[in-house]
Automatic annotation (TrEMBL):
Transmembrane segments: 12-31, 100-121, 142-160, 172-191, 226-252, 272-298
UniProt KW Acetylation keyword: no
Ranges where the ABC transmembrane type-1 domain occurs: 94-295
Principal location class: membrane
Domain of life: Bacteria
InterPro entries in the record: BPD_transp_1_N (IPR045621), MetI-like (IPR000515), MetI-like_sf (IPR035906)
Protein name: ABC transporter permease
Alphabetical keyword list: Cell membrane, Membrane, Transmembrane, Transmembrane helix, Transport
Gene3D superfamilies, per the entry: MetI-like (1.10.3720.10)
Organism for this UniProt entry: Psychromarinibacter halotolerans
PANTHER family linked: DIPEPTIDE TRANSPORT SYSTEM PERMEASE PROTEIN DPPB-RELATED
Length: 307
């Protein structure tokens, strides 16, 4: 088990380093940020002076090595736009992103899990048809369109909820449900498929032949093994959501990390882009690292095969 965990941890570290390297070089392809930071008519000498102050006049390899050294110290530099440490700006937006992601995941897991179980246990019935039809519709509906329709209905027409912003639970409900629709639909379809496959396994038939209670078979033999691919999906969704649901945050004016990174890209704010992507990549990789550990809990054969 120790070797399995260390191997996965090393893979996580290498993945984060690879992402940071890629984002460093890609941001340099976006253009010269100095042209966006100075007023029109600024002289070339003044622009060169600003480049020197920002360290953008150094050779690319020197900038890269300096960047890696700063990252190891947790220093991503000052945001060009906000004139504050980039990491500080990102951390200020994290509570809003965590709040949205947590609410959306909670709604999605509850609705998707219940729908997937119903569809699997009621296979071939009208209930399964309704659940799967709604799940397919949920996956096919564009997030921005759904968000706008929810605003028009619940905020504009009925006046029950605010159109956007950040604050109370009423501001959270619409964006969380908008994101949760896709999550619940994906979980429902995957859980149903996984449940149906697991029900055909020999160990499930053996459990039935031994006379075990249907509830025991469902909880300890069928559902536990069917959850393995679902856990994978949830781990990926956690990484994506904590990285910021850009479209949803934009539609509802939600001050999350995703929206902030999008604005940073638009303004060529290198330090803020790098800090944001570093945060997102770290969360995403750690989420998948925890998923790998969950594999070993749900199915001990996995760590035996990989150790």
């Amino acid at each position: 088990m120790t070797r399995y965990v260390l191997t996965k941890f090393l893979e996580a570290v290498i993945s984060i380093w690879g992402v940071m390297t890629i984002v460093f070089f890609v941001t340099r392809l976006l253009g010269d940020p100095v042209t966006l930071l100075v007023p029109v008519g600024t002289s070339t000498a003044e622009m060169d002076t600003l480049r020197a102050q920002l360290g953008l006049d150094q050779p690319l390899i020197v900038q890269y090595l300096s960047f890696l050294g700063d990252v190891l110290r947790g220093d991503f530099g000052d945001s060009f736009v906000h004139n504050r440490p980039a990491a500080e700006v990102i951390l200020e937006r994290m509570p809003a992103t965590i709040q949205l992601a947590s609410a959306a995941l909670a709604i999605g897991i509850v609705l998707g899990g219940a729908a997937g179980l119903i569809a699997a246990l009621k296979r071939g019935t009208f209930a399964e048809f309704i659940v799967m039809s709604l799940a397919m519709l949920g996956q096919a509906t564009p997030v921005f369109w759904l968000g706008i329709m929810l605003i028009l209905l619940f905020a504009v027409q009925l006046g029950w909820l605010p159109t956007g912003g950040y604050g109370s639970w009423s501001h959270l409900l619409l964006p969380a449900f908008t994101v949760a629709v896709f999550i619940s639909a994906s979980i429902a379809r995957l859980l149903r498929s996984s449940m149906l496959d697991t029900m055909k396994e020999d160990y499930v038939r053996t459990a039935r032949a031994k006379g075990l209670l249907p509830r025991t078979i469902l909880m300890w033999h069928t559902l536990r093994n069917a959850l393995i691919p679902v856990v994978t999906m949830i781990g990926i969704l956690v990484g994506e959501l904590l990285g910021g649901a850009v479209v949803t945050e934009t539609v509802f004016a939600w001050p999350g990390v995703g929206r902030l990174i999008f604005q940073a890209i638009d303004s060529n704010d290198f330090p803020l882009i790098q800090a944001g992507v570093a945060m997102v990549a770290t969360i995403f990789v750690l989420a998948n690292f925890l998923v790998d550990l969950m594999y070993a809990v749900l199915d001990p054969r996995i760590k035996q095969r990989r150790s």
